[in-house]
Amino acid sequence: MQNFSNIHWPNSPHVRSIITQRHSGHSRPPFDSFNLSDQVGDTPQHVALNRKQLITHTGMKSPPLWLNQKTHSDQVVHTQHYHPTNPLDGL
Q1: 51 phi and psi, to 5 degrees?
Q2: How many CA atoms lie within 13 A of 69 on its CB side?
Q3: For residues 57 and 17, is the Cβ–Cβ distance under 8 A?
Q4: At residue 48, what are phi and psi to the nearest 5 degrees?
């Protein structure tokens, strides 16, 4: 089952967005099933498998920079200042 949607930005061909759903992953409750965050207490192996599945099925050439602690704000940083545990909403 496909558990993601590709969003195409016709005016920005180098920008890629993917919306994921919670289906067809490896995580167990309460994280079931397609959890991609390693900051919520899920089994690290399950998160790694889910991330690998996303990368493989979407054809990513390299792993993305994961936004694990979203703030639902205007917190955006340049990729050179990225750290996976920093709370932010965009790169």
Answers
A1: -65, -40
A2: 10
A3: no
A4: -60, -40
Bridge partners, residue 62, by sequence: none
User: 24, 73, 87, 79: which is closest to 53 by C-alpha?
Assistant: 24
Q: Which amino acid is at 37?
A: S
Across the strands, what pairs with 76? 90
Residue-wise pLDDT tens digits, 15-55: 778 888 888 899 999 988 899 888 889 999 999 999 999 99
DSSP code of 4? E
- In the chain, DSSP finds a helix count (H) and a strand count (E) of 1, 2
Whole-prediction pTM: 0.76
